[in-house]
Amino acid sequence: MIFMESPDFFFYTLHSMGAVACPLQILGLYCILFKTPQSMKSVKWVLFNAHIWSILFDISVTALTMPFLVFPVLGAAPLGILTTMFGVSSDFQIYLEFTLLFTVLFSDMLIFENRYYQLFAKNKVWRHFRMPMIILNYGIVATFMLPTFLNTPDQLTATELAFKQVPNLPVELRSMNLSIWATDYRLFLGSFIFITSFQLMEFIPLILITDWNVRTSIKKSTQSRQTMQLQLKFLLALYAQSGAFFLTCFTPYVYILYSCFTNYYNPIANNFIFIFVASRGSISTIILLSAYKPYKKDVVNKFQLLGTSLGCLKKKKVANQTGIFITNQNTSF
Q1: Which top-level group of life is the source organism from (predicted)?
Q2: N or C end: fewer C-beta atoms under 10 angstroms in the chain?
């Protein structure tokens, strides 16, 4: 077994990513709570909600569960502290991962819904349906995997079937405590495809209608042109964050479907698809801090102060009227 196929590679890579993501996520949380300007007050708490779910998902995948996947077998060997320190059920851990993943997607969608409601739908019929829609979505996200995990097969039989399904599974992996959550693809993939289709059927129209309303308002000047321009810039930043989600989460999604339908086993790909998913939070936070001007300005100022305190920034000498040089102005990086 080469190193990139091994559980050790998976384990140390995720821990390293978590060490990078944690301070980055905390910085993002700080900016949302304390540097969101008054003009963004109406979106502050949905940004906070989305960021909190993102943090929980990141902590879960890089420390708590760390499920070592063996697709096309519908099973995994959790390597995180919920297993090593607390002995939490593997089934519950996998259920937690899927639930958090799609909660993150729905929380991102709520930001677009907030923009649509605040700007265009406060006095429209949508105001009567938005809260039931939000409650329904959270309920579906929390329960869509229950049919699969309430029908978990006998593990001894399921493990034997898994070894037959992937006869070239390395001996090291065969000795691990694999948790097989399904031997029949239909129930698992049915739930998986259902929740994805359900959320995309809401997400894509919501993005399109919000974008259309903002651009129409700019053209017709039905609202302050400057305000709508700012909202459009905000939406473009949201598009970048949503794009990062789809890139890092739906690319693995396509691979999982391909692996299951073709019985394709590639241990390196199995490791990297989850590493790819685990990178979502860091990428999204970097976009958050760089695309939103108030946050970007604060982050740049903090790095300049840090650079000054560490001696990385040189002080520029400026002569005053008396010819004495003063050093109270800093150059940038």
Answers
A1: Eukaryota
A2: C
